[in-house]
Amino acid sequence: MTILGLTVSMSVFWLVATIVFVVVEGLTMGLTTIWFAGGAVIALAASLLGAGIAVQVVLFFVVSVVLLVSTRKLFVKKLQTGVEKTNVDALIGKEAVVISAIKPFEPGIIKLSGQDWTAVSQNSEDSLDEGSKVKVIRIEGVKAVVAPWIQ
What is the CATH T-level fold of the domain 88-148, as seen in this structure? Predict the structure, then answer.
């Protein structure tokens, strides 16, 4: 193969491609090129075993796609284990205090992280008295959905 006037063996080409894909992945940390590095390694092995260029290219693409499809979801899931909750998501699971009673099918008010929130009971038929502790189950629009605090 000739690149910029230089004759390069396919083994060197695949080795350089592997290094480039790994370096780009290291710089971006976005799981974008690591799959292609795996394909390039297999193509390098095929080149060293004497396979033709067409076989090497097909192996590169097939292995890259198989790695991408079969492992991307797993890696993305594993790498997001330390994602920090922000904004409203950070309120879910927190303890709050009822400052205006929550009655069946009627919202009340809770004090949550120093702010007043309109709140409804998770079970719409429950009453939660003023002063009782509740746990935030979810946020729906501008209302907190709460349940009695159980320790």
Answer: OB fold (Dihydrolipoamide Acetyltransferase, E2P) (2.40.50)
